[in-house]
Amino acid sequence: MTDQLIPARRAFPADDPIFALNAEAQARRAAGESILNATVGVLLDEAGQMVVLDTVMDLWRGLGAVDVAPYTPIAGDPAFLKALVQRHWPLLDTAGAACATPGGSGALSLSLRNFLERGQALLTTAPYWGPYATMAGENGLRVETAPWPAAGQALDAAAWDLTLQALMKAQGRVMLWLNDPCHNPSGRSLSAGDRAALIGLLRDVSAQGPVTLLLDLAYLDYTREPEAVVAALKDYAALGAEGRVLVGASMSLSKSMTLYGARGGALAFPWCGDPALQAALTQSCRGTWSNCARAPQALLLRLAKDGKAQARLAAEHRHWSEVLSARALALDAALVAEGMDALHWQGGFFVTAPAADPEAACEGLKAHGVFTVPLPEGLRVGLCGLRADEAPRFARALRRVASR
């Protein structure tokens, strides 16, 4: 019965497109086909099993009843919020205005309710993670984009400036979701020069109205260039400390701790202690999910107090970053061998392979038993689930589809 649904809620697909593709790939594999599934959004080992970090599981098993069962404060445990912020900015002694959220997605969604009016537009990059549009739509918003730099190319500052100025003129405010460093789904980060150019544009447009920069920091622990990640976070911290642009972060335990199902995360504005902002975030929590789970917050606090566990976890992150890097290098070599361009991964779980008609290419690859996620700009390929020895098969299938 759907008559009870209001008309605007009756025409949705039965499943999220990414999850639907993954389910189709798994069903065909279960039926005996040889399937290469690059749709997966979790880290898999060489046997195709989900990676669960040993350090994190040891901490999880040590949690007691009082670490799991009681309510947390509506905005989350203040010590947890501070510890999570300090994973990215160790020198900060406060989380600023902040609240616990169910994963990074909860943090992103919460920002939409507090920094944009219904009918306005969120700004992000092209390409972007598809659920950004779902979150925006659920809040009566639309998505506008500016181009992410192609491999080896500089940021198109003119295009970004045009988009920022147009949005500010149209709605009197701008919020940018920036998945940098370790951009999903390109796998590349902004260079220092590109980042400086973008920060300069944000400073300039902030003279005309409120600008919020929300950093989506889901993948920072998986990178080929840890020093570059640290440098990027310092640049964004300097912008936040100026106070002209409101800089915040969506932080998640899903990828960093392989706690996808625990739904731990936070939305924090470390350089802003405005009580009105804190009150707005807390009110949104109360009116949406009320309290977040205590267990992931307790786990992070145990980690923050255990130097040996932090060292073990850092070693695990380095290992899996090296695995991802090897997979990326194997894929680049296979693509080049087939006459296509390398993708130059720097961090995260994904890369994006160009395709003239992504939807058609996705369907064509499925005929070869290869599953990817179509985006307007190409095909999202999950390095997190694509073994290095599968790269040649992927590249051959992509070349066949591209040659049609």
What gap, in angstroms, lies between the N and C termini?
A: 44 Å
Helix count from the secondary structure assignment:
14
Strand order of the largest sheet: 2-8-7-6-5
CATH topology of the largest domain, what is it called? Aspartate Aminotransferase, domain 2
The beta-strand count equals 12
Strand content range = 5-15%
| Structural class based on helices, strands and sheet pairing | alpha/beta
The radius of gyration is 21 Å
What is the overall silhouette? Answer: globular
Q: How does the major sheet shape up?
A: 5 strands, mixed
Overview of the molecule:
- There is one protein chain.
- By secondary structure, the protein is α/β, with parallel strands linked by helices.
- The protein folds into 2 domains: 7-53 and 310-402, Aspartate Aminotransferase, domain 1, CATH 3.90.1150; 70-306, 3-Layer(aba) Sandwich (Aspartate Aminotransferase, domain 2), CATH 3.40.640.10.
- The protein has 14 helices and 12 strands.
- It has helices spanning 17-30, 54-61, 65-68, 78-88, 103-115, 131-138, 157-171, 192-206, 226-242, 275-288, 294-304, 307-337, 358-366, 391-402; strands at 36-37, 97-101, 121-126, 142-147, 174-178, 211-216, 246-252, 265-269, 350-354, 370-371, 373-375, 378-382.
- The protein has a 5-stranded mixed sheet with strand order 2-8-7-6-5, with helices on both faces.
- β6, α9 and β7 form a beta-alpha-beta unit.
- α4 crosses α11.
- The protein is globular and about 60 Å long.
- The N and C termini lie far apart (44 Å).
- 45% of the residues are buried.
- The model has no long low-confidence stretch (mean pLDDT 96).
